[in-house]
Description:
Elements: H1 3-16, E1 21-22, H2 32-35, E2 46-50, H3 55-68, E3 72-75, E4 93-97, E5 104-108, E6 113-117, H4 122-131, E7 134-135, H5 148-153, H6 161-164, E8 171-178, E9 183-186, H7 199-203, E10 211-219, E11 221-222, E12 226-234, H8 237-251, E13 255-262, H9 263-272, E14 286-294, H10 298-314, E15 320-323, H11 327-338, H12 340-347, E16 350-351, E17 354-356, H13 362-376, E18 381-387, E19 392-398, H14 405-426, H15 445-448, H16 451-464
Parallel strand pairs: 2-4, 3-4
Antiparallel strand pairs: 1-2, 5-6, 6-10, 7-11, 8-9, 8-10, 12-14, 12-15, 13-14, 13-18, 16-19, 17-19, 18-19
Helix pairs in contact: 1-3, 8-10, 9-12, 13-14
Flavin-adenine dinucleotide binds next to strand 3, helix 5 and strand 10.
Amino acid sequence: MSERQSTLLAALRQAVGAAQVLTHDDPGADLSAWEQDWRKRVHGRALAVVRPGSTAEVAEVVRACAAAGVSIVPQGGNTGLVVGSVPDDSGTQVVLSLTRLNAVRGLDAANLTLTVEAGCVLQSLQEHARQAGFLLPLSLAAEGSCTIGGNLATNAGGTQVVRYGNARDLCLGLEVVTAQGEVWNGLSGLRKDNTGYDLRDLYIGSEGTLGVITAATLKLYPLPAAQLTAWAALPSLDAAVSLLGLAHQHLGAGLTGFEVMGQFALSLVDKHFPNLRTPLWRDSPYCVLLENSDSESETHAREQFERLLETAFNQGLVSDAVVAESLSQAQGLWHIRESIPLAQAEEGLNIKHDISIPVSTIPAFCAETDALLQREVPGVRLVNFGHLGDGNLHYNVQAPEGEDAKKFLAEQETRVNGLVFDAVARYHGSISAEHGVGSLKAGHLPHYKDPVALGLMRAIKQALDPQQTMNPGRVLVSP
Ligand SMILES: Cc1cc2nc3c(=O)[nH]c(=O)nc-3n(C[C@H](O)[C@H](O)[C@H](O)COP(=O)(O)OP(=O)(O)OC[C@H]3O[C@@H](n4cnc5c(N)ncnc54)[C@H](O)[C@@H]3O)c2cc1C
């Protein structure tokens, strides 16, 4: 270890207490929980993992690292899917874990806001809001481990975006430690504030490359009086898009979830988790999961749902459907949807794509790209599912049946990514809808992002982090 590194470690121990600075030199040290990403694609090596307990301590850590010229990798729940929250393998980076910043600072019922620290686990915040009679409508399958700081840093989406928007839309204010170690208190609960550039929106979605989010003020909503879930079988993706339009018409703001699942995706759930009893998938190319949240009553919600489904049957959009009779049935249906990534992992390694396309052109995109992939890589299996209500598909590509998945990935990932991303570009879509860029997609950005936008992004990075110490190599790579 260099003298500069030892001096830095001493300063970090001074800042946060020796017990909160973990290194490989500690007896019995195992830092893999912080060094390995969720999908186990990368196992880096950190100089240290530092766990500050307050905003002031975060600021001290950032100042010490800046003085030493050492780069920082902010980390929340480490559930990110694009390799953004783990260190590289140089052994020189500091992982800044935010999980000890986990206090709820206050709930303002009249203002419908909740102010919380960055390391709070999303599910605990949903529960906190619910106990006070409110809804915090950010919801994703990783909610038991991801943190609100990570959600904001990645501008996470999830299953209720169709009604409430993504993490950005749910955030009114931020507290941030800048790359220089200053604290910006932007914890405003204001819904209107036109006093210049929106710094909050710069830090949201910046994936730890501009500064460290230490706290946030979030929007709350009234709890709905009833929430109903339906599962419908459909003859085609065209029918799914038409059903979405119909659901908007019939349910209005009550439409809080609209997920699509392809037959092969559901067959994997049935194969690997048969006890979940996946309904209606065998005879239908697609199934859709709909959620209706109603401010009046369950009877009203059910009537609305029945009218919608009846119209859809009459128009030939839906061939069969079930409406959950109880909360546990509804949770069971959502659990099937959320089990698709796990079923896919059981089947073997795969090439993941998190893309968005204007909803209207999704059927044409899929028809064209499915055929293209079959032509170019015969036998590949498409695990297509996602948040159709937001135009967001997880268009994943699994190795042909019986083929070694690791070998397939090594040989085909670059080519398959190119085919899919080029198709996304032709359809005016985005190569990252909700997971972010991280280091996994940073190299692709120069090919698919408008060059003027990329130039502006570089200028922002240079202005806010001139030393380039905040999560280097993520989002932007050197030109
Ligand atoms: C099973 C599963 C399902 C998922 N479903 C969805 C989904 O539906 N929608 C969706 O959008 N995502 C989904 N994800 C991805 C992931 O959960 C989200 O990206 C989540 O927002 C990451 O939060 P985290 O606390 O784990 O952040 P981490 O993984 O720790 O970090 C993610 C990025 O944010 C940065 N970061 C973290 N905390 C801070 C901070 N306080 N300040 C500055 N930068 C920070 C990191 O440096 C990194 O670049 C899923 C993941 C899994 C494993």
